[in-house]
Design a protein that fits this description.
- A five-stranded mixed β-sheet has the order 1-7-6-5-4, with helices on both faces.
- The protein is an alpha/beta fold.
- Strand 5 and strand 6 form a beta hairpin.
- The longest helix is centred in the N-terminal third of the chain and has 24 residues.
- The chain is globular, with a radius of gyration of 24 Å.
- It contains 18 helices and seven strands.
- Helix 2 packs parallel to helix 4, helix 4 packs antiparallel against helix 5 and helix 6 packs antiparallel against helix 7.
Length: 438
């Protein structure tokens, strides 16, 4: 450990990493690599993945297909071994340091290449193989979606597509947003089927002036004219909408931050649990998070701690929760933590005002949604968070410009927010030509 410790210090110094690391206990009951052979196979797989990335950058799909075909027999062995094992590993989050995990990522790149080459039969077979490896749970929903799409649209096999959709809907590891997509696919395959997810968010329509000619070229975005203390400025659609909400809807503070507001507040409030004593999640003194943060084990490994803490938080008064977040801010400010942006709020006071407007009970409900799937719930959170401390109002707003539409993840989040009583809106921005100002 001493050699690793010194090497880490040298590398951090070389790359001028000056950010503070959190403190925690290292409780390792198993090594990351059980043998030199396991390390060697892991490194070989990483090198293979790097080659795929390089070919992807150059759009060399045939070369990626070659890598795929060379390694397909080995991956079939990996999946067969996994399916035949009666005892699954307890620390699933450590699988990322194995050959099988990295080769699965190589297969994913191979899948993208096959679809680019329009080899859909081979792509469908590969997806079925990938679905046999369950540890990469966060990809299963998109794999089921892709499989159904290929059979329905490309291979013209509606019955096979329907079977894939039903299997995806029955899979307990399929995410909510993927289930929405699968239900929509099923409604196209079966006209008698009505999707269960029918939530439509509250919609606000606003007209904003756009710079003449912007957004007309392929892949270009419109440039909007905003107001900054009486001065016209050019900005994106989210920023101009934020300005509109503050000027017209009685909000005093806010920012365009998407999921950063939730991950930042969660990290500040749950700091002690994040860095609590759990086996095999900290392997050196230079980690910004436990290794199981993005796995399903994260919550289950700390269930009692989270449940007790959330019950306590939900009962706090405005003053108590304001004092709590201020004290935690002062104690940990500047220390690195995955998902935490210390520059999001201007200071502890602004953070406290935001938390008070959310209210302790609703904040806890947000945390309960987030903690069970940190990886998945970071995306899809509405663009804007706005509040007024004087009136204790808080809202989250998803912004869509001309031609843009909600993703399924965004729909799921808007419904979740509505269910827990947080004001959540879809703001549709219509462009007004700057010619009309002349």
């Amino acid at each position: 450990m001493t050699g690793q410790h010194n090497l880490s210090r040298i590398l951090l110094s070389q790359f001028q990493v000056t950010r503070k690391f959190p403190t925690y206990k290292i409780l390792c009951t198993k090594p990351l690599f059980s043998s030199s052979h396991q390390l060697e196979t892991f490194l070989s797989a990483c090198q293979l993945e790097a080659h795929c990335h390089a070919h992807t950058q150059k759009h060399e799909w045939e070369k990626i297909e070659e890598i795929l075909n060379d390694n397909l027999p080995r991956y079939k062995e990996i999946v067969k071994t996994w399916q035949g094992s009666n005892e699954k590993p307890r620390d699933v989050h450590l699988l990322r340091f194995t050959e099988e995990w990295v080769i699965t990522r190589v297969m994913r790149q191979g899948l993208a290449a096959l679809q680019r080459l329009r080899k859909y039969e081979e792509a469908a077979s590969l997806i079925e193989l990938l679905l046999g490896y369950t540890p990469m749970w966060y990809k299963r929903g998109s794999w089921w979606e892709n499989l159904a799409l290929i059979h329905h649209f490309h291979l013209k096999k509606p019955e096979v597509a329907r079977t894939a959709v039903l299997a995806g809907l029955a899979d307990p590891l399929t995410s909510k947003d993927s289930k929405i997509a699968l239900e929509l696919r099923l409604s196209k395959l079966d006209r008698n089927f009505t999707p269960e997810f029918t939530f439509e968010p509250k919609t606000v329509n606003i007209d904003i002036v756009a710079l003449e000619g912007s957004g007309s070229a392929a892949n270009s975005k419109k440039i909007w004219l905003g107001d900054n203390n009486g001065e016209t400025v050019l900005c994106g659609v989210e920023d101009v909408t934020l300005n509109y909400y503050i000027n017209n809807f009685n909000f005093k503070e806010g920012f365009h931050c998407e999921g950063s507001v939730l991950s930042t507040l969660f990290s500040i409030f749950c700091w002690d649990i994040l860095f609590s004593d759990v086996d095999n999640v900290f392997y050196n003194q230079y980690q910004y998070s436990p290794l199981d943060l993005n796995s399903h084990d994260f919550y289950t490994n700390r269930k009692k701690q989270f449940d007790d803490y959330f019950a306590h938080l939900s009962e706090l008064s405005e003053q108590e929760i304001s004092d709590l977040v201020t004290n935690k801010w002062v104690l940990h400010q500047g220390t690195g933590c995955d998902g935490l942006n210390w520059e999001l709020f201007s200071d502890a006071d602004q953070c406290a005002r935001c938390v008070v407007c959310i209210t302790p009970s609703k904040l806890v409900k947000l945390f309960e949604i987030y903690v069970e799937d940190v990886r998945g719930k970071r995306s899809g959170v509405p663009d804007l968070s706005v509040w007024n401390y004087e009136t204790r109002e808080f809202a989250m707003v998803e912004v869509k410009g001309p031609g843009d539409s909600l993703s399924n993840k965004q729909r799921v989040w808007l419904r979740c927010l509505d269910e827990i009583g947080i004001r959540a809106e879809l703001c549709l921005v219509k462009a007004i030509s700057s010619k009309k100002l002349r």
